[in-house]
Amino acid sequence: MVGIKSYGAYIPRYRMDHGTLFMAVAFLGSFPAPGENAVASHDEDTLTMAVAAGIDCLSGVRREVVDGLYLASTSQPYMVRQNSALVATVLDLQSSIRTADFIGSTKSGTTALLSALDTVKGETSGNILVCASDCRLSKPGSPQESLYGDGAASLLVGRDEVIAAFEGSYSITYDFPDRWRASGEKFEHAWEDRFIRDSGYSQFITEVVSGLLKKYELNIKDFAKIVFPGLYAREHGAIAKKLGADPAQLQDTLLSTVGDTGSASPLMMLVAALEDAKPGDKILVASFGNGGDAMFFQVTEKIKNVANKRAVKKHVASKKDLASYEKYLAFRNLAPMDLGMRGEISIKTPMSALFRERKVILSLCGSKCRRCGTPQYPYQRVCVNPDCGAVDQMENYRFSDKKGVVFTYTGDNLAASIDPPSIYGLVDFDGGGRFWFDFADCDLDSVEVGMPVEMTFRRRYVDEPSGVHGYSWKAAPIRA
Amino acid sequence: MAEGIKNKVAIIGMGCTKFGELWDKGADDLMVDAFKECIEDAGIEKKDINAAWFGVHFEEQSVGKGATSLALALKLPFIPVTRTENFCATATEAFRGACYGVASGAYDIALALGVEKLKDTGYGGLPGGPGLMGTKNALIMPKLTAPGAFAMMATRYFAVYGLKPEEGKRMLAKVSVKSHYNGARNPKAHLRREVTEEQIISAPIIAWPLGLFDCCGVSDGSAAAIVTRADMARKFRPDPVYVKALQVALSSGEELMYTRWDGAHVETTYRAGKLAYEEAGVRNPREEISMAEVHDCFSITEAVTMEDLQFSPRGKVNEDIEAGRFNHDGPQPIQPDGGLKCFGHPIGASGLRMIYEMYKQLQGKVQLPERQIKNPKLGLTHNLGGFPPMNIVSIAIVGL
Question: N or C: fewer beta carbons within 10 Å in chain B?
Fold first, then answer.
């Protein structure tokens, strides 16, 4: 039996209320509907969110069993340098795995999931992690600005012990030019909204779902939950009605709480459906983008064993209002801000050093002394325990999944930062090991010595002349 | 322990420029100014110098790599010149090189000169940049600044000894009040204004909990010393100052990566201090060290240094600060010249600037009589380079 073995999601902490947006862009004639969007912080992007969703999905899973990683996005930082390979390294997956980027369309999330299911079914891989993540830039004042939200979902696809069995799929493809972004462009272009809604969204969802129902001789009433993205709130209901579905069968679109998360959207909704699912439930999932994919799952008894996931519900509830539109623009580098001359010091990543030290820098691995048992970060050849000092007696030790406590900290107003003060400190890890890290997602007033923290992968900088997106791990308060 | 350096080397001349934001002086001007005062004080000629040690830290700000800039600025006649760099201990390392050079018998007379031209960066604070701790650290360390790194020690000190932030900040404010008092009376100091506790506590925060007046000056300047073998010293002057101890200690990694360090002290200061006292034959540093110039890059650094050097018991420095022990008229004056806080901190010159103050005090030759400390016997200087969990400390003890 092939299907979903685990799930996870990530939604950034910041939300921007559409009232904030309205105050900023109403003069342009832009009137967003009520609601709020999840917006990435200045140190988050598509890859950091994909990693966070992957970590949520892999909690309780041995990383060694994962032998594939598919990453879907329309806003991946790199066109060359495989984004999925980077995510696989950050997740400390083994090197003998298959990776692929699924890009270019908001249906890429479901396409990646289907490809993973097919790969496992074809027995070329055992367990494939699928991550879908989008953090799309939209032009200030554009309709997309209030529509798009940032978020990621992750599903582990495998053969046995599945929580939801994969039952079948149906796909359609049209070169539908609703939105496009050419190579090298920063923002998407969009054709008229009514065209997208009437000729695309409404038609394709109906066609792909009907196709699936017909192919597998299903009745729409068979499904406990029906998942398809809600680009247009009213049309979302109208499509369901046209398909003969009851409104209660519709999975919440997250449109007013998170926004449309692009390639991640149908998978985030699927994760949310799985959070509430009971054994025996059938779940239908459809995506939209240059056509669409439809598929359905049947939930198994194993769903009862799922534990300790933040998934969608907890992430939706854990939020902080980003009340300043100017700050939002600054975080997304949509308005140049003066960081002083200290902020102009360029940072370069020596790529050969990054590759050599990838376990340390990207996987947050250190070492553990075989002789005295001391965990230490970064990897040391000579044991740091002054009473030991063993040489070359180390084994790899992963810190990214360890929690810790704040040993000390500061909020630095001198360091160049788009979100001053820069908060950083020393962390003592549970089980041993100490190092210093930048802190993420916290306010200086809430940090204290002894505060529990977890590790989160974040963007460190973007060096435009060299085209490098640099990343590192930070410590963050444990998110509820 | 080895025999040590005690009484083998004497200082026969010193020079120190005014420190400050010297917009009209380049590094070479500063070197010439410090050297001029130094060689006149020693009463020798340039040709008498056999070798030189040259300290500069941020070479990219001013002089470039190597030691040629000193040789060229002073027109040293084809003698060996060695550059030293060891963070904020850079000048003391130059001094140590010169001392060991004459102590070994390899040379009769050696010059140590340190310089730093910091005010060509275009912004406040020390020059930034990712290269300070090497390639790997640039990619994994927090993007910290010096005030932030030391602020974390203040946070930790407050937590370990149960001080509320306002109590801790008041303790630290008193440290800076004293240094501003001393700096205001020193014509060569960078910052020459007295400030009150209230001004210090209400100043803008640079890195919590440290405010503007908890941070030392970022300055341009240069200082120099000429040393010779102790047995030759009185040929040059009647009041040479003798080197009693020179010690250096570096972090082993256990502070940063092992979980034993309490974060509220600097282990290297304690270790180097112990060795220096042993070398100098000091049994009770609180009683026997007459005065000191310590590395008060930040007020918290001076406070914990008092404990690490065993001038104050652990966790009790506040009592000594309250009692005025370290004030100019107290029993153990600290930073009589204003310290890094007010005299200023051109990294590569600071160690020699500290020794300059001790030298003048010991000789009774401080320019203004009200600055003179009465009958000092031993003076200690201390540099801390790097950050509290990852640093180098140098200590020198000099005396008559």
Answer: N
> Distance between CA B18 and CA B188 in Å, rounded?
4
Per-residue confidence of chain B (400 residues) as pLDDT tens digits?
Answer: 699 999 999 999 999 999 999 999 999 999 999 999 999 999 999 999 999 999 999 988 789 999 999 999 999 999 999 999 999 999 999 999 999 999 999 999 999 999 999 999 888 899 887 678 899 999 999 999 999 999 999 999 999 999 999 999 999 999 999 999 999 999 999 999 999 999 999 999 999 999 999 999 999 999 999 999 999 999 999 999 999 999 999 999 999 999 999 999 999 999 999 999 999 999 999 999 999 999 999 999 999 999 999 999 999 999 999 999 999 999 999 999 999 999 999 999 999 999 999 999 999 999 899 999 999 999 999 999 999 999 999 999 999 9
Q: Tell the residue number behind the tokens 């030991």, with chain if given.
A: A388
Tokens 């479901």 belong to residue: A110
Kindly provide the b/e burial profile for residues B149-186, where b requires at least 16 CB atoms within 10 angstroms of the residue's own CB: bbbbbbbbbbbbbebeeeebbbbbbbbbbbbbbbbebb
0.90 surpassed by pTM: yes
Which residues, including other chains, have CB under 8 Å from residue A192's CB and lie 6 or more apart?
Answer: none
Spell out the alpha helix ranges (H) of A148-232: 193-195, 202-215
3-state SS string over A382-438?
A: ECCCCCCCCECCEEEEECCCCCEEEEEEEEECCCCCCCCCEEEEEEEECCCCEEEEE
What is chain B's Cα-based Rg? 19
Does B345 participate in catalysis according to the annotation? yes
Residue A342 burial class via C-beta count within 10 angstroms: exposed 0-12, middle 13-18, buried 19 and up: buried
How large is the ipTM? 0.96
Peptide bond into B80 cis (omega under 30): no
- Cβ separation of B136 and A421 shorter than 8 Å? no
b/e code A162-201 from CB counts within 10 Å (16+ = b) = bbbbbbebbbbeeebebbebeeeeeebebeeeeebbeebb
Q: Do B140 and A426 touch (CB under 8 A)?
A: no
Chain A CB contacts of B129 below 8 Å: 345
Are the beta carbons of B257 and A432 separated by less than 8 Å? no
Annotation says B382 is catalytic: no
A-chain CB neighbours of B258 within 8 Å are: 374, 376, 384-386, 434
